[in-house]
Amino acid sequence: GNGQDPHTYSPTPSALARIERAALLVLTGLGFEPWLAGIARGRSPSKTLILGQRARGRTTAAGHPAPHVWLDLSNTRAWVQACAGQLALLAKPHAPLFQQRALALDSRLEALDRWTRGRLAALPAERRRALLFHEAMGYFGEAYGVHFESVAGLSTAEEVGSRRVAELVDRIRRGELVAIFPEQNEDERMLRTIANEAGKPL
After folding, report:
1. What angle do CA 102, 83, 67 make, to 5 degrees?
2. Burial of 46 (0-12, 13-18, 19+ CB in 10 A)
3. How far is 26 from 43, CA to CA, in rounded Å?
4. CA angle 32, 167, 6 (to 5 degrees)
5. Which of 67, 72, 134, 171 could form a disulfide with 139 if both were Cys (CB 3.0 to 4.6 A apart)?
6. Cβ–Cβ contacts within 10 Å for residue 33, how many?
7. What is the distance between the alpha carbons of residues 124 and 117, in angstroms, rounded to a whole number?
8. How far is CA 177 from the centre of its chain?
9. Which residues, 6 or more positions from 94, have their beta carbon under 8 angstroms from its beta carbon?
10. Which helix (H) or strand (E) holds 156?
């Protein structure tokens, strides 16, 4: 739901019941929704779509599969087609409508991709370096030429040591990281502490 962290979400019994009844379960996979993994394994492949298996993948600095695949819009566009195809199999009379809407959405995503590339290309490379709380933006960084550092690793639940905080404060002061972005659902206090110590606004 809104404001929930998909890494740590714990579904209610009623939510689980709705998932079990769903004609199609769509999930990212790649460890993004660990609470859904067991449910997905118990369902028919025709009623489950794991989008992470249909994307150009990458790994994190720690060697884990990176799940935030949609942040490279080429992956998102592939997902749209995958969803349209799977829905068409489940509701064949509506297949033309699914394809029509998929094409319309793909056109919008293509335009967004061009706009994003153009805006970021206008910035010097040394200005495209930012700090986040956890390692979520790797796909975006690779696709659009932005370097992201994270306070924590892949999971929002990871502990962060004082040595790591001091290292990041020092790098911000030296100008190696030029922006700090808080993330929805994250504990903003850690980033705010780093920003205050480095003299950099969020």
Report:
1. 115
2. exposed
3. 11
4. 15
5. 72
6. 17
7. 13
8. 21
9. 87, 88
10. none
* DSSP result, 54-113: GS---B-TTSPBP--GGGSHHHHHHHHHHHHHHHHHHSGGGHHHHHHHHHHHHHHHHHHH
Of 70, 65, 78, give the one whose Cα is nearest residue 140: 70
Tokens of residue 147, six digits: 């370097």
For helices 162-173 and 188-198, the axis angle rounded to 10 degrees is: 50
Is the CB of residue 32 less than 8 Å from the CB of residue 67? yes
Place of tokens 């829905």: 87
Query: How many Å apart are CA 153 and CA 143, to the nearest integer?
Result: 20
What digits encode the pLDDT tens for the residues 31-51? 899 888 888 888 888 899 999
pLDDT over 90 (residue 88): yes
pLDDT digits (tens, 9 = 90+) for 89-109: 999 999 999 999 999 999 999
What gap in Å lies between CA 1 and CA 173, rounded to an integer?
38
Cα angle 76-151-177, degrees, rounded to a multiple of 5:
85
